[in-house]
Sequence to fold (452 residues):
Amino acid sequence: MTQTSTQLGGDPASIRAVATWFRDILAPRVKEAASVAAHILNERLDAWEDAAARAFAEQLRAGHRKAEELAEAIKKRADLLDEIANTLEQAEELMAEADRLATLGRLRREGGWIYAPAYGESVDAQPENNTPEALEAYYNSRLAIWEKVEALTEQAYEMVRTKLIGDDSYDWNTLIFRAGDFVKETVSELVAEAKQTAVAATPLLLARERPTPSFLRLQAPAGHYGLTSRVLTAAGPILIVTGAAYELYRGNPPERVVLTTGVGLGGGPAALWFARALGFGSQPWTAAAITVVGSFFAAEVAGWAYDNTRTARDKLLRTTPDVDPGPRPLPD
Amino acid sequence: MYFESDQIERWSRHIRQVRDDLDAADQAKPESVDAGPFTPLVIDMVEATVADYVHLTLRLGTLADRLDKVADYYRKVEEVNQELLQVTPDSPFYNAGAIGLSMAGEHAAAWGLTKDRDQE
Fold:
């Protein structure tokens, strides 16, 4: 990369203020509502008993449980907000350090970006100091500072992104609400899409409905290995699909999983086709080994490409619309 | 079957008081939040929580209203019963007391308190 940015907005104190509102105001009041419901339930039999009273008690008991759940949920959300504030604060400290280093290294800044140094740039105003050795040493020191700046900004953006999408504790939504469900639905859709791609890319899985493509037909003697060889040849793609679920479970970004899964699925058959073109892979176990290695290798290459061709900032901006949207009024 | 209108009314007042306290929490709400890249997540979380909170507040208000109606009705039944106690067994109104008691249940059903009563 030749440029990076330290742009990262947000005020951790304002997030903590919301957490405090949740924890100190909302949660105790909901808890109080639950306590009143429990109190009335305790007194009810002394004051009122008939069919209506029993129905009332049943409704009140259900309401009491819900209020207790809500009080706990609000406390958990307050804790999550505090964690978010801490993450943002740490990321901002990293950005501040990167800014300080960029100033120290006299790195070029333009339009909110910090640029990698160029040889001969920002040289000493005294020409007698600009010997080739001095210029080389100066460039190298600035390059070292640039690398440190870049590493700090990458770390800060990655820290924010991980908190946004890589943390399973965001299941706070499953209790009652929608944003986490949206993430889950999105993930499920991606998994379903990956599975559909798997079926489309490996016709062997639908062997009864579709003729086996010529490049996947095995030369098994008298068809003894027909089923076995088909299953074994699909071993690589099957492992890749299983691996996709595991990658999502580990918190890898869905778009990375889709990329590695798709490439991995294509990699197995491609490797087998190539091996057969060279005269290998006619035996079931050889074919299975080739597809497994081919799928795995292709998936790894795709993963490496994903990790190394985009900055952490690019990846972060795929999960949130803006790194510095400014203050927003709280919903009523 | 027995009931105490005053106690039911006290519950209603207690619930209404809690409802008002819940309502007042809005005054302590921060004006805005600047969560940087976390803004959509934080706003979603606040929206979700406020929605739940408002729902609870409304339900408590409805519960208090219903309890008020129940207390009013049972109070009327008590008044009828007091009057009937003055009537002799020979009076044509003697059985009205029992009818009044059963009507209490019917009216409670009408207010939605005995939803499950039909299933009993």
